[in-house]
Records
---
Amino acid sequence: MAYADSPKYTLLYHPGIPGRAEFIRLAFEATGTPYTDLANSASDGYATVRKACIDPDALSSLGDNPPVFAPPALQVKGEGKGGGDFLISQTSNILSYLGPRLGLAGEDEADKLWVGQVVSTALDLNNEVHDTHHPIAIADYYENQKDEALKKTVDFRKNRLPKFFGYFERMLKWNEKQQGERKREGVYLLGSQLTMADLVVWQVLDGLFFAFPEEMKARTEEFGLLLGDFYGSVKGEKGLKGYLESERRMKYSMGIFRHYPELDRQS
Ligand SMILES: N[C@@H](CCC(=O)N[C@@H](CS)C(=O)NCC(=O)O)C(=O)O
């Protein structure tokens, strides 16, 4: 596709895994926003991602943009300071940039900040999930840190999961009260329509269902509002449903959400 006809947004990330880029994909997919997923769509796409986001010696990125520490990054056509492309990184930063532009940040300034607050909390949980299988060294194999991973995961499942789930349920209950009789199409964390908060929390829950199926089954009764009503409602959202059933939705494998049966709840 010629540059002039290409979508405004390009996502730069590793190929073949949902990873942290999935939060950004969900925002595009749920709103029907065109985007290019560079490493998954062009044969030399990942070379560009590596140059822009992974080169440890880079003193700039994609033209005049500052260096990036790690993917994901978002390229926005023509929005750079000198008229070139704009490049930003850090998942939470990208999501707060896109939120108001895609209509996923609520209705006013307070909503925008509250959406950011829930998104940041869900991304904290996402990081803790990652640390269950890599508690010691990010660049080393899981097999070399199995004992520590088990200790970390037992605490995570026992203490951290219910703390995060309890918080998200309190958000759902708070929002239900705020909305009163207002008509809503689904179950939301903030306001009466889908926001970035719903998408990010949903994605972490979905990954947890894959990584710890036994733990999640056991928690479903206790957190029915979150793991039943909310999870099911967001999954069925217009725009998202088709994507989740499509081939574009990549499978979990060796990314943040991994299924190691020995780390799951033992019956
Ligand atoms: N806090 C960053 C974390 C970025 C990150 O850890 N990216 C991973 C892929 S999901 C990566 O490639 N990391 C390489 C590294 O940290 O050395 C974000 O949310 O964007």
Note: The radius of gyration is 19 Å.
---
Amino acid sequence: MSTLILGGGVTGLAAAWHLQQRGEAVEVWEAGATVGGWMKTLPWEGGHFETGPQGVLWQKGTAVDRLFSAIDLPFKSPGTGARWVGKGGRLIPVPASPVGLMTSPLMPLGAKLRMMLEPFQPVRPGEPEEGLSAFITRRLGKGVATELLPSMIAGVLAAPAEILSVDAIPKLRQWEATGSLVNGIRKGGVSHMVVPEGGMGQLPIRLAAKLASVRAGLRAERLEALPDGRWRASGGGEIREADRVVLALPAYEAAILLGSAAPQSAEALAAIPYTSVDLWHSRHAPLPALKDSFGFLIHPPEGRGYLGSLVPSWMDPQSAPEGLMQLRSFIGGAFGKPADLETWEGIQARLKFWIPSLGEPVATRHERAERAIPRPELGHRARVKMAVEGLPAGLDWLSNARFGPGVRDILEGLETWVA
Ligand SMILES: Cc1cc2nc3c(=O)[nH]c(=O)nc-3n(C[C@H](O)[C@H](O)[C@H](O)COP(=O)(O)OP(=O)(O)OC[C@H]3O[C@@H](n4cnc5c(N)ncnc54)[C@H](O)[C@@H]3O)c2cc1C
């Protein structure tokens, strides 16, 4: 069996690695000059910054662990850092334990008591698809859905929880299926955030090095069915015929290629919206409060387009030069971006509002992540089903829009896909 994989992000490369392990002949085409898609670690005077993921959720014996071990990828965990939610004009610590949550000012007492009843809520059948906020309200109560969920979801998907499907976070339904979220989390165990040595970009680089054929700088432009049931892809002056073509691409890119080969799938994929986000990297004199900190997320109505800031120099000390603290601030997303957040001065003003002791930066850097994050709005399940079911034999589509937003979701989804 020969397979051509289009897209050399982590999804395409990890899929190729699995197929190669099974003894298949695989080639990967990547449109960009280098592999990795959003998962790239780029140099920045004396350190580096991430274009996409800051870390990945790892746990012993899971898909992430199995892949990292198989490709000998060294990684480290920063541990459990302090984190906050910005609300009511101040940063409120997110408690690390359920007991801590009971005494936290993050939610009113009634909301905390209702949350405790989660294990006793009946399990609802998976169909019909439920909204994310409705799911959390049903299981954990309105308090959690309105006071905690919005900032958490803005931090992952840069979008309002009210418009999303429960499928935006696939783990939720998986946990509920075990009887309750509490039970699911207890059974599944706790994951830790880890970062490969040298940054997240080392994962695609290491994967590509293990593959027999990876072509960077080659964009697929056309896909045609051959009379013998095989497929032909072409682009950049190259033509390749294969038994199977896997589109490991964002839905909107896959839709373009599938236009005439699989019109039903193309239509469904084109209807999956994506969110753009602005990322501002900045380096400052270290602050003791943020030294061992993951960062903070702002409760969305209050953030007015400022979603929060992470502390990459805590997660990955090599990212910043000695003696400096590195922040990464998330702006806009599906919440929109007010005019004051177009420039660093506006961002700095917002940062200083939440952390008054923060000094002026010694360096800043702006990156625009255009259509970077899928937005699984209510109806997502039907769109994915229609897309996958509409694919003719010999074509497949793999993506975080299918498996879930995080690297962990993708790697778990791929293990099931390849089985
Ligand atoms: C800002 C940001 C922060 C994130 N933070 C985290 C995090 O902390 N933890 C986490 O787990 N996840 C995080 N994620 C999500 C994670 O990065 C993504 O889920 C994952 O990287 C998606 O990988 P992918 O291969 O599916 O897609 P992509 O990375 O989009 O890769 C698709 C590839 O296909 C290529 N391509 C497109 N069209 C063609 C064509 N016609 N022919 C050939 N190649 C083509 C593109 O150039 C690209 O390289 C974050 C994402 C972003 C954007």
Note: The longest helix spans residues 10-21.
